[in-house]
Amino acid sequence: MTYVKVEIASQPDCWRKSAESAGAPGLPTAGERVAVVGCGTSWFMAKAYAALREQAGQGETDAFQASEFPRGRRYDRVVAISRSGTTTEIVELLDTLNGRTPTTVLTAAVNQPAAALATEAIVLDFADEQSVVQTRFATSVLALLRVHLGEDIEPIATDAEVAVRLPLPVHPALAEQITFLGRGWTIGLAEEAALKCREAAMYWAEAYPAMDYRHGPIAIAGPRRVVWAFGDVPPGLADQVEATGAAFVHSRHHGGYAALGSWCGGRAPLDPMADLVVAQRVAVLLATSQGLDPDRPRNLTRSVVLT
Q1: Residue 269 pLDDT class (50, 70, 90 cuts)
Q2: CB-based contacts of 306: which residues, under 8 Å, 6+ apart?
Q3: Which of 35, 130, 188, 283 could tie 44 with a disulfide, CB 3.0–4.6 Å?
Q4: What is the H or E stretch that residue 107 is in?
Q5: Same fold for the domain at 3-153 and the one at 166-288?
């Protein structure tokens, strides 16, 4: 069994454990103007959290890829997400902000530069991974931040326990492409699901805001292609997708997953973060069905450290 399969299955317990850090020093307080930064998967989690924090009325929250942080803009706090704590763009930004702006890093590695440079470090070492591909660390960070915003982790983790056992709604032999969609905070989840397919399986996957999908990207929908939506779905979108011959996947659609002949109905819709767990499992299946190693994708390393 690959490392990533074990790490995906461990997410419900990791989310519960991460919730224990929701009162840690350094997490944004209500009313603070906050920027959240990351790279790759961490950036997508930053985008999801930023949307959730504003939705909760906690204050203005922006998300940036760390290299694109607007250094002339003022924030009350900058939150950085970095599994390794060594990513060049994160380390350089924290070094630049040192002494100017309070910074908090969420990381799996306490003895690395990011933790040393940040004003506060919240270490989720129990969620660290052996696979290059990120799964449980990123979602554990988002779980912690959701609890800090006042959400209850237990129903979310319970949904994840269902997600690690569900029949998969996409079969590699029947699908040549997937487009993931989201609205609000789930746009970040859709982007992360597409990244998992690309990096683990070298598979053609895209992501868009659900409302914008009809403004061009729907042109590629057709037979043997899948449109997978996280969270709320705009009225009429499922019918429009299915009219193209593409399969529409959504945990609420017809009461459960339905796509490409796979069926899992008769249950309440999954929390979108648990739905991401299903997408992670699909990415691993897409990889292994081609004989690829999802733990060690080509051209990728655990951390991007630039010389």
Answers
A1: confident
A2: 88
A3: 188
A4: strand 103-107
A5: yes
> pLDDT band for position 255 (50/70/90)?
very low
Helix or strand (DSSP H, E) at 248:
strand 247-249
pTM, entire model: 0.94
**CA 117 to each of CA 15, 82, 274: distance values in angstroms, whole numbers, following the listed order:** 26, 13, 33
Residue type for position 113: P
What CATH homologous superfamily does 166-288 map to? Glucose-6-phosphate isomerase like protein; domain 1 (3.40.50.10490)
What pLDDT does residue 254 have? 40
* Angle CA 82–207–244, to nearest 5: 165
How many CB atoms within 10 Å of residue 23? 9
CATH number of the 3-153 domain: 3.40.50.10490
Q: Of 76-85, 223-232, 265-274, where does mean pLDDT reach its minimum?
A: 265-274
What are 230's two structure tokens?
Answer: 């996280």
Least confident of 124-128, 176-180, 239-243, 297-301: 297-301
Q: How far apart are CA 12 and CA 153, in angstroms?
A: 9
**Per-residue pLDDT, 257:** 56
Q: Would you kindly state where each structural domain of the chain is located, as residue ranges? A: 3-153, 166-288
Position 261 confidence tier, pLDDT thresholds 50, 70, 90:
very low
Of 32, 66, 37, 65, nearest to 49 by C-alpha is 37
CB 188 within 8 A of CB 47: yes
Q: Chain-centre distance of CA 227, in angstroms?
A: 17
The packing angle between helices 41-55 and 136-148, to 10°, is: 20
